[in-house]
Design a protein that fits this description.
The chain has 422 residues and is of the alpha/beta class. The protein has two domains: 7-47 and 322-421, Aspartate Aminotransferase, domain 1; 56-318, 3-Layer(aba) Sandwich (Aspartate Aminotransferase, domain 2). 36% of the residues lie in helices and 13% in strands. It has 14 helices and 15 strands. It has helices at 7-15, 50-65, 69-72, 80-83, 85-92, 105-116, 134-146, 151-154, 169-178, 201-210, 305-321, 323-343, 374-383, 407-421; strands spanning 30-31, 34-35, 37-38, 99-101, 125-129, 155-158, 183-189, 214-218, 237-240, 255-258, 351-353, 366-370, 386-387, 389-391, 395-398. The strands form four sheets. Strands 4-10-9-8-7-5-6 form a seven-stranded mixed beta sheet, sandwiched between helices. Strands 11-12-15-14 form a four-stranded antiparallel beta sheet. A two-stranded antiparallel sheet has the order 1-2. The longest helix is centred in the last third of the chain and has 21 residues, at 323-343. The two termini are 29 Å apart. The structure holds pyridoxal-5'-phosphate.
Length: 422
């Protein structure tokens, strides 16, 4: 599409946007009484108006039924983890049995690494991206130490080439091949939180498997942002949180994917709890853990119904919008932002966009690397009613979310940014 740098053009895109009605389904935060330019759906997604209703239903059932709600509430709590499966499976490109909502992201990463990082004396190395989100770094480091290995000799972090900002797929594939005799696990973000790079999940998985390694992904910035095909791509396992693009609220219940081919590997070592135990016998309280087949077998505790109700509310909106339509709009919306940033005339001089310009190698986020006075520019944006986010040392992350952001907002952001640069 031929973009134009005018408000009228942005408004035309909004008028003809097939997903325009979805914005009204969300509460839009205000700054000084005015609707904010909210571009932080990558950090905390906005609240669907329906969330309150979903929560109220569970609160009402709890008030009226007490413990009987486990069986007799509208959505019986005993089976609550089943209700989000379909929606999660759609977004993950998975079968319902391959996904389940549970715990929090870092907890899930540990739990799945217990099963899928099985280092031996000869095969123990992990390949991952350099500069991964801190929690992932800590998880890997502590898992490696837990198995008695030295993190410095075990974790291989892949950096971009000199004068480049994102890692080339060919470099990832060749590193995997190079370490193939010692490699136990390949683990990457889906979308890198800092640069916004979408890694090539299929190619990385193929290369990892060819090297005899297990392959997992942290989809914190990918679920609900990009179209995923975890099942087809043969990914072994994945984890995500639900408070970013999934709009399930602060501290929301997270989720996991375990590929079908591992569904009945009951001998895989795992840390167990009663909610992962064979469903028909769960309440017999017998000795001897018998895992459920599929992702369910990794659950530990009874389901957090209130957070899951919020997740359910949000997944219903994703179902109505359809991830394919969201992807189409996302490419256009972020493409428009990229175009407008290029139009400022300050690219290269005052800022750079770190995120790949190839739309297949990114989601909706653009990471703007400020060459000078970045914090000052960011403060001007904030004063003007923009909610974006600042990442040390000098990156402004902007994520136009196709469910609720508009082309006009992107236009207004670019205008404010341009003024701030002057
Ligand atoms: C947001 C995010 C986290 C946060 O972990 P929690 O366990 O949800 O607190 C971890 N890793 C990545 C890549 C993230 O983007």
């Amino acid at each position: 599409m031929q973009f134009e740098n005018t408000l009228a053009f942005a408004r035309t895109l909004d008028r003809t946007d097939p997903l325009k009605k979805f914005r009204a389904l969300f509460h839009l935060p205000k700054v000084k009484g005015k609707t904010a330019l909210y571009f932080t759906g990558n950090s905390l997604g906005l609240q669907p108006k329906s969330t309150r209703q979903f929560l109220t239903e569970e609160l009402t059932d709890w008030a009226q039924l007490g413990v009987e709600g486990h069986l007799h509430s509208k959505r019986p709590w005993l089976y609550y983890h089943k209700f989000t499966k379909k929606g999660l499976a759609l977004l993950a490109g998975a079968k319902p049995a391959e996904v389940v909502a549970m715990n929090h992201l870092t907890v899930n990463l540990h739990l799945l690494m217990v099963s899928f990082y099985r280092p031996t004396k000869s095969r123990f190395k992990i390949i991952t991206e350099a500069g991964a989100f801190s929690s992932d770094q800590y998880a890997l480091e502590s898992q490696v130490k837990f198995h008695g290995f030295d993190p410095d000799k075990t974790i291989i972090e892949l950096n971009p080439r000199k004068h480049e900002y994102t890692v080339r797929t060919e470099d990832i594939l060749s590193a995997i091949h190079q370490h193939k005799d010692e490699l136990a696990l390949v683990i990457f973000g889906g979308v890198q939180y800092y640069t916004g790079q979408l890694f090539d999940i299929r190619k990385i998985t193929q290369a990892g498997h060819a090297a005899g390694a297990v392959v997992g992904f942290d989809l914190a910035h990918a679920m609900g942002n990009v179209k995923l095909n975890l099942h087809k791509d043969q990914v072994d396992f994945a984890v995500w949180c639900s408070y970013k693009y999934l709009n399930a609220g602060p501290g929301a219940v997270a989720g996991v994917f375990v590929h079908e081919r591992h569904a009945k590997r009951f001998n895989l070592p795992r840390f167990a709890g009663w909610w992962g135990h064979h469903e028909q016998e769960r309440f017999q309280m017998k000795k001897g853990f018998i895992p459920m087949a599929g992702a369910d077998g990794w659950q530990l505790s009874n389901h957090p119904v209130l957070p899951a109700a919020a997740l359910l509310a949000s997944l219903e909106i994703f179902r109505q919008a359809g991830i394919k339509h969201l992807q189409t709009k996302s490419i256009l919306l972020t493409g428009y932002l990229e175009y407008l940033l290029n139009q400022t005339g300050y690219v290269g001089e005052k800022f750079l966009v770190l995120t790949p310009s190839d739309k297949r190698a990114r989601g909706c986020q653009l990471s703007i690397y400020m060459k000078q006075q970045g914090k000052k520019v960011f403060d001007v944006l904030t004063k003007a009613g923009v909610i974006a986010d600042w990442r040390e040392p000098s990156v402004i992350r902007v994520a136009p979310v196709p469910l609720y952001n508009t082309f006009e907002e992107v236009y207004r952001f670019a205008k404010i940014f341009n003024e701030a640069l002057k």
